[in-house]
Amino acid sequence: MTAASRDILDVITAQRTMEGAGFPVRRPFPTPELDNLDPFLMLDEVGPVDWPPGQAKGAPDHPHRGFETISYILSGEKLHEDSTGDHQILGPGDVQWMTAGSGIVHSEMPSPAMREAGGRAHSFQIWVNLPREQKMAPQRYQFVARDQIPQGHSADGLATARVIAGEAYGVAARIDTYTPVTLQDWTVQPGGVARPTPPAAQQMALYLFQGTLAVGPQGRLIDEGQLVIFGPGDGIDLALDAGADQAARFLLFGGVPLGEPIARYGPFVMNTQAELVQAFDDFQSGRMGVISR
After folding, report:
1. How high is the pLDDT of residue 2?
2. How far apart are CA 96 and CA 86, in angstroms?
3. How far is CA 5 from the centre of its chain?
4. What CA–CA distance (Å, rounded) separates 22 from 187?
């Protein structure tokens, strides 16, 4: 007996906006149409943008508290620096999973080489909420280089999953998470069929950032820049017509909903307004530290 397929609950087209010091993003949420996908708070596709020499932009020093930030680089290089003393250059295919917890100040800027020479910048910035009991957890920085990210493949080789969090095709992620989540970069070649089977308890979604894809039991055609939200069930039906002119590439993600109140303003995500006020006070008084350079 085949496990129940997940139906499509909604399809949302990402909105374009500007962030940081002036870089373009395509954002499916949060928007007026969709506030969050518990436990995911934000999904930004940064770029792609081709920077001329000397013009590359990023996000200078800014604080966070109460959640985790994920940087996944597709093209270009990013210099990460934070108030715990961590600093690293992330390149194509690398992942940084940072737990802000009780508070951190960090900076996400183009690498010195990219600032000088320019080039294409394309990445994802993703926020995952922390449960109430972990809001004030210690800061943590997890880096996984491109060649260390586990990859799963379909038997015919037409579907590939880079497993950042969760499991696919029998391979498991290296990242340790506070909340049970799935986060995977999938590529389906023309003629490919895939049926991911994430945990039934997780609320799942898919964001297509390249090509087109037939999704769900009815094979609804999804276009680049669209977010698909799935209902309950087991497997997710995915296929790409053999005549497609390019592969489909998408993020498959989801998690077990926390179901907790969210008090959110700018860089802080807490459970109550009083906790938000305390977060701003702690940042302004310097208790979240500064980046030493």
Report:
1. 55
2. 11
3. 24
4. 30
Q: What is the spatial distance between Cα 264 and Cα 73, in angstroms, rounded to a whole number?
A: 26
Cis peptide before 180 (omega within 30 of 0): no
State the DSSP string of 194-253. Answer: E-----TTSEEEEEEEESEEEETTTTEEEETTEEEEE-SSSB--EE--TT-SS-EEEEEE
The reply to whether the predicted model has a pTM over 0.85 is yes
Which residue ranges make up each domain of the chain?
8-255
**pLDDT single digits (tens) 149-192:** 999 999 999 999 999 999 999 999 999 999 899 999 999 999 99
Point out which residues pair with 122 in neighbouring strands.
Answer: 75
Question: Beta strands 67-75 and 95-99: pairing type?
Answer: antiparallel
CATH of domain 8-255: 2.60.120.10
Single out the residue of 74, 27, 31, 15 nearest to residue 49, CA to CA.
74
3-class secondary-structure state, position 261: coil
Asked if residues 231 and 200 have their Cβ atoms less than 8 Å apart, the reply is no
